[in-house]
């Protein structure tokens, strides 16, 4: 049986009238995989939200897996991507960055330290990863919009003692970043509800001003001004991060002072530059 807290959270989300299918499952292999399968089988009303208490084979970016324990909020949204003026459709412009920004803004409502986005969409608090995002796009036959599966894992109240050593070293949980008196306010339900509210507000902002994220990015970026190393399809680029361009590509100024633009890649390391 669902707890009252969970029922209230689901009622609030359903009351927003955005999702046409909302499920909170006990255990799935991966919320991304499950939703992608339902979309391919055309067996689900969109937009859809799937949340799970446990994932047996959570997927990360690239070849990574997503390690999780109880207290991790894991969910995926399946949303048509296309003309944002069409109801329930979202713009594809800078989508990964917009998702990271929405999580950072949501977590800022809980954390005493500022959450920052590590390009393109991981969220960090005090130098440690608190959230990972995996976006997959499912094309559909002509005249139908593509569907984005937006998978988000947020460490809300996670105990990392049994985690692999690299996760113990590099990850953090939101409950350790709030004022002591507010620890009880951090639950998977409260963070999910806060995120969905923020997400909807930011879709509205996107419709009103498609350039808003480019203006906000420098304030929420973990990497701007830092030395970074980025792996991408053409190799590895290193240098000072100058921010992003209008397409969301990260800008890296190398030792020859040339600026390299990387649209898709992984930031392998970063460190503060002496100014
Ligand atoms: C990463 O940091 O590499 C991305 C991690 C994404 C994890 C989330 S948890 C919910 C959703 N389902 C998955 O299998 N993965 C994403």
Account of the protein in words:
- With 275 residues, the protein is α+β, with helices and mostly antiparallel strands.
- The protein folds into two domains: 2-219, 2-Layer Sandwich (BirA Bifunctional Protein, domain 2), CATH 3.30.930; 223-272, SH3 type barrels.
- It has helices at residues 4-15, 31-40, 95-108, 165-170, 188-208, 212-220, and strands at 21-28, 48-55, 72-81, 116-118, 122-125, 128-138, 146-155, 227-232, 235-244, 250-253, 259-262, 265-271.
- The strands form two sheets. It has a seven-stranded mixed β-sheet with strand order 1-2-3-7-6-5-4, sandwiched between helices. Strands 11-10-9-8-12 form a five-stranded antiparallel β-sheet.
- The protein starts with a helix and ends with a strand.
- Bound molecules: biotin.
- The site of biotin has 20 residues, from helix 2, strand 3, strand 6 and strand 7.
- Biotin is lined by residues 30-32, 55, 58-61, 64, 66, 74-76, 122, 132-134, 151-153.
